[in-house]
Amino acid sequence: MTISADFVLFLILAVVSVMAAAGMLLSTNPVHSALFLIVNFGTVSVLYLVLSAPFIAMVQVTVYAGAIMVLFLFVIMLLGIERLRHSSALRWQTPAAVGLGLVLLIEAAYVLFVRDAPGASLAPGPLAAAAETFGSPQNVGEVLFNQYLLPFEVTSVLLLVAMVGAIVLSREK
Amino acid sequence: MVPTSYYIALSAVLFVMGLAGVLIRRNAIIIFMSVELMLNSANLAFVAFARAYQDMSGQIFVFFVMTVAAAEVAVGLALIVAIFKNKRSINVDEVSSLKG
């Protein structure tokens, strides 16, 4: 893998996103965790831009970082959780979870980088240049409303159910 | 162009970190955020493969995963608020009334 500008960009984004995820996990203040997760979503959105998915990148910023995380921050500040004291950690399960996670990672790295040729079994040859309109909103709309129309309508019903559920759950008895 | 396996490796790292967060943390909000991190890493894998195979289906599926994640966050946070009103705590160790 030659050190090209693409690789340097990917490396910077990957390091920032992994460090932001680590900050989210290890932070004691839930507000700090939410802000770290927003940084992670932002870097993943830039990765989507690199991967020729401009529409998905903007949807990520709008929906994930802009709506979901704002909802998280609303709830965190509504409940005043940052003032609660930090609970005691589990004794033997924390090292076990970290150890098993490392085992899973080493196994994934082995499958990806050691077996066969690097990445040969994953993608068909070197990446061809994408068409100019590969991830554009027009292209996404064409596929979404022609091929995936039924799942689209089902997700609208899902959103209705989620809204009704949220209202019912938060109603005063 | 960066090989697809690098993106999948990053997706795996983020997924394992989200998984460790679900297993280790006791705060319900942090557990929920770790689940969102896992969903996000799966989205990254989808978009990477959509780029590799020049198939738009990967990006469409990411669209649907984000919709489902938004709906899940709305209902899950309403649940957490309801539990907090009842117990004044969101430590998942204390939500064990059904435990035998």
Q: Any overview of this molecule?
A:
The complex is a heterodimer of chains A (173) and B (100). Chain A is built from six helices and no strands. Chain A is mainly α. Chain A has three domains: 1-82, Four Helix Bundle (Hemerythrin (Met), subunit A), CATH 1.20.120; 90-122; 136-173. The radius of gyration of chain A is 21 Å and the shape is globular. In chain A, 24% of the residues are buried. The model of chain A has no long low-confidence stretch (mean pLDDT 85). With 100 residues, chain B is mainly α. Chain B has one domain (7-89): Helix Hairpins (Orthogonal Bundle). Helices cover 78% and strands 0% of the residues of chain B. Chain B has helices at residues 4-24, 28-53, 57-87. In chain B, helix 1 (4-24) runs antiparallel to helix 2 (28-53) and helix 2 (28-53) runs antiparallel to helix 3. Chain B is elongated, with a radius of gyration of 17 Å. The mean pLDDT of chain B is 90. The chains are: A mainly alpha (173), B mainly alpha (100). The interface between A and B is large, with 85 and 70 residues.
